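Anyone opening a protein record will find just a pair of labelled lines. With that in mind, the following record should read easily:
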Amino acid sequence: MTAGTNRDELARVLRRARARVRPEDVGLPVGLRRRVDGLRREELALLAGVSVDYVVRLEQGRGPHPSAQVLGALARALRLESDERDLLFRLAGAEPPRPGTIDVHVRPSVLRLVDRFADLPAMVLSAKGDVIAWNPLASALLGDWSAVAPHRRNHPRLTFLPEPGDRRTPLGGPPEDLERAERNVVAQLRGALSRYPTDTGLARLLDDLATGSERFRELWDEGSATTWRTHTKTLAHPVVGDVTLECDVLVVPDADQTLHVYSAAPGTPAAEQLALLSVVGTQQLTEQVTRQPATGRG
């Protein structure tokens, strides 16, 4: 590691933090025959987008110097408070995120709020649309977020640059619903750019979208602006079929993040479909975790 890095203390902090996080706290299936407190190393690796070997080496005090992206991903996966996150960065010889950059760290108090929506899908998005927290029912409805590469857990990227392995429940309903969703995504990114003109992650995202999506370029050039409002959304789910839900967006103002909650009126077919999803849940994690680049973009 580079000068200024405290390998041994970094390893201890990671081990202690991993031991106190339960899989159900981060939207992962509990499974059977658990022999360790907290997350398994492979579960932490999956959430952070690194290899299991990478986590092992960090926890043994012999790993390479982690990038800021990896440190941020580890902090989110381990549900660290802001002060704990900053300590993690400094132990690794890195500067914590500076003011004026998009906050992708979710406060534990917000995560506890997400956990309380036990029977409703809920997830937290950053100012540039990163999916940075979710509950198990959100994975059951929208596709297992832990199975999506961390740098692709981004709503605009999934909307305009889809890939076969995204495992995302597609938007159903009439074509105008998709157009409304696309325009809303572009308007939100335009607003984010006005607030964070020097954020490198946002600049990289916008460059990727402009390069790879003609549809994004077309909507961006129109210059439209809008704000999130409560709306209905029809999703084409592979198990319960098309389900139409209300999506409420709650703002976490000091972090510039949004909490998205899906619901249906009691006694409706959609409510019954949600109840079924809570029983079906998500598939168990595979035993082998596909290695993601240790400096994966997020």
About this structure: The chain has a mean pLDDT of 85. The longest strand covers residues 241-252.
